[in-house]
């Protein structure tokens, strides 16, 4: 049962999904698109609602949705989503919320150190974005 996740080559809405899939040791195809050349009319036209992320499993195509692995009793999918929101906010806004909110930093570090997630985070390195190049064109 192949799984496929399509999103940009940065964190954001898809990163919590990647974390969950890595943490639950699920194999999936991680398709990444260049954010600086978006929107690509051909790709955009092929997407449900013209938006990312897109998750495919068992012949189903889900948009802005989450895969349904059993995570762990002490964490919910919401914790993974919150972690992704914090990381994306830090990158796009140039802030570090963990410094002002230690409990947030503790949760983010806990998720980033989970088996599978830790190895994934190490393999991709830090995300960066050049906001001057990031110009959305309609």
Automatic annotation (TrEMBL):
PROSITE patterns: GST_NTER. GO terms for molecular function: glutathione transferase activity. GO terms for biological process: glutathione metabolic process. Residues 1-63 form the GST N-terminal domain. Pfam families: GST_C_3 (PF14497). InterPro entries: Glutathione-S-Trfase_C_sf (IPR036282), Glutathione_S-Trfase_N (IPR004045), GST_C (IPR004046), GST_superfamily (IPR050213), Thioredoxin-like_sf (IPR036249). This is GST N-terminal domain-containing protein. It comes from Spodoptera littoralis.
């Amino acid at each position: 049962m192949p799984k496929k996740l399509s999103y940009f080559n940065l964190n954001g809405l898809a990163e919590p999904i990647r974390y969950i899939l890595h943490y639950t040791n699920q194999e999936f195809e991680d398709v990444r698109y260049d954010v600086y050349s978006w929107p690509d009319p051909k790709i955009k036209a092929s997407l449900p609602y013209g938006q990312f992320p897109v998750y495919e499993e068992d012949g189903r195509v889900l948009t802005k949705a989450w895969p349904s692995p059993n995570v762990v009793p002490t964490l919910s999918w919401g914790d993974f989503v919150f972690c992704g929101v914090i990381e994306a906010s830090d990158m796009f806004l140039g802030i570090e919320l963990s410094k002002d909110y230690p409990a947030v930093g503790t949760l983010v570090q806990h998720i980033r150190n989970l088996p599978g997630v830790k190895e994934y985070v190490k393999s991709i390195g830090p995300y960066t974005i050049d906001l001057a190049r990031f110009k959305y064109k309609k």
